[in-house]
Amino acid sequence: xxxxxxxxxxxxxxxxxxxxxxxxxxxxxxxxxxxxxxxxxxxxxxxxxxxxxxxxxxxxxxxxxxxxxxxxxxxxxxxxxxxxxxxxxxxxxxxxxxxxxxxxxxxxxxxxxxxxxxxxxxxxxxxxxxxxxxxxxxxxxxxxxxxxxxxxxxxxxxxxxxxxxxxxxxxxxxxxxxxxxxxxxxxxxxxxxxxxxxxxxxxxxxxxxxxxxxxxxxxxxxxxxxxxxxxxxxxxxxxxxxxxxxxxxxxxxxxxxxxxxxxxxxxxxxxxxxxxxxxxxxxxxxxxxxxxxxxxxxxxxxxxxxxxxxxxxxx
Length: 315
Fold this sequence. Notes:
Elements: H1 9-19, E1 23-24, E2 39-40, H2 45-58, E3 64-69, H3 72-75, H4 77-87, E4 94-98, H5 106-117, E5 127-130, H6 136-146, E6 154-158, H7 164-169, E7 181-184, H8 195-204, H9 216-234, H10 242-250, E8 284-291, E9 294-297, E10 303-304, H11 306-310
Parallel strand pairs: 1-2, 3-4, 3-5, 5-6, 6-7
Antiparallel strand pairs: 7-8, 8-9, 8-10
Organism: Streptomyces rishiriensis
Protein name: Lipoprotein
């Protein structure tokens, strides 16, 4: 199984494990992707994104509010953001739970804004971080309508919850994402490292507008196929089966992705096994910002948040 993402890995991973089928390139939406011995995630999922965002905002923000799903998966998010905030010299974020299937979030937006500024009369330049996945755009619409009373509040979010298409749909430079910090797993889409992917899309899928090179799902799947291709090539002409591909990946094969990620290599007892993420091997993130309606690099290169995550209070 190559690429894709789901909040329901607890339901499908046991079936893959029972059949011995490796899962290459999951999004890291759920913790199961970082614990299953048959999972080979190519990025650090929400934990790395939130830790990286917290580390950046911790040095520049006043009070921080985290708006996240009121779900089991959502319960795992505050410790990761707080680990980053602590690394940035900040206190913990206010944990604002929200229904993941709401059609509007005015109540949550108002509460998050008040916490981030100390109320309408407050002068603290706080930040609101949203990690609502597909509902982030819905929340940001409520954020936009509430923001007039809180002009100094800044927004922060993570790729996977927002990408360039979401920013465009929200009004681009005139929308609520303008000025927001966004942490991502990979370089911005304009980076030359994406040229091979863009070439393939242009040559092989030129008429399929569903394949958008700015979409993080497309990008993650491209990297997943890169892993699969190198695993197959390492077999040196041998039979390609679920068992042989797993064997190659489990035998210390090092995967290079042309600068889109660090070198990938999976070991079941990796550095982050101590906090329950034994398969999380790539904890490097990029810091981006929305400027003039476009996602651009806010800092060059990657930020490694492995040490930050090691200090996360996951209990």
